[in-house]
Design a protein that fits this description.
Number of helices: 1
Radius of gyration: 21 Å
Structural class: mainly beta
Helix content: under 10%
Order of helices and strands: EEEEEEEEEEEEEEH
């Protein structure tokens, strides 16, 4: 059964493929015993808006004695302090296990000045359609939500969009498998299920109270 979840920004790194689980960093230069350097950055969603509550972490081989990670704030910003070395960087929704993005090699050089790291993301697959009211007129300002599913089924990502004045919407995500597309409304029309993105003309008609009463009888 599909349970609505809080929407998450959908992230797919530019020039990188999404990975379902963190890979062990390749043999790399272990972080040196030198003063830590500050690494700052910002995480942006596909529309260029800040992505909050994503955990950015650095991994090394051999493993670090203690975690080096930070949570992005409401502005998508994060700050990490790390000694010079060759790291793997992962970006994970807070509380999840499977990373949305992996940068296999992030080299922090000795005596390097603080440099901002912009992690910008783009979505690969889209769902489009229109929402209409029960009388057939466009439904403007309604929320449509899609649930994108990773190939191994280990990760689900929700993204929301508001319908335009003509009732149209466009949703984008990093995976081609889409479990559900539904309109957040009451009464709620039946969701579209098990789609393969990209997909167009995924349309909905909102139910009147009378239609909803007939449906539940």
């Amino acid at each position: 059964m599909h349970h609505p979840r809080s929407p998450l920004p959908l992230l797919l790194p530019l020039a990188l493929l999404p990975l379902a689980s963190a890979a062990t960093p390749a043999a790399s230069t272990a972080p040196a015993s030198q003063p830590a350097l500050q690494l700052t950055g910002a995480i942006l969603d596909p529309h260029g808006k800040p992505a909050a509550n994503y955990r950015v972490a650095l991994h090394a081989n051999p493993p670090l004695p203690k975690p080096l990670d930070a949570l992005s704030d409401a502005a998508g910003r994060f700050t990490l302090s790390a000694p010079p070395g060759d790291y793997q960087l992962t970006c994970v929704p807070d509380g999840a296990r499977s990373p949305i993005a992996i940068i296999d090699h992030l080299l922090i050089k000795p005596n390097a000045p603080p440099q901002p790291l912009a992690i910008s993301f783009a979505a690969a697959f889209s769902i489009t359609g229109k929402v209409r009211l029960s009388d057939g007129s466009p439904a403007a300002g309604w929320t449509v939500r899609a649930t994108f599913l990773s190939p191994d089924g280990a990760l689900e990502l929700d993204t929301d969009a508001q319908t335009a004045p003509d009732g149209s919407y466009s949703l984008a995500g990093p995976y081609k498998n889409v479990s559900f597309v539904d309109v957040i409304s009451s009464p709620q029309p039946d969701p579209a299920k098990n789609l393969t993105a990209p997909a167009a003309d995924i349309n909905f008609k909102l139910l009147s109270e009378q239609e909803e009463m007939k449906r539940v009888r």
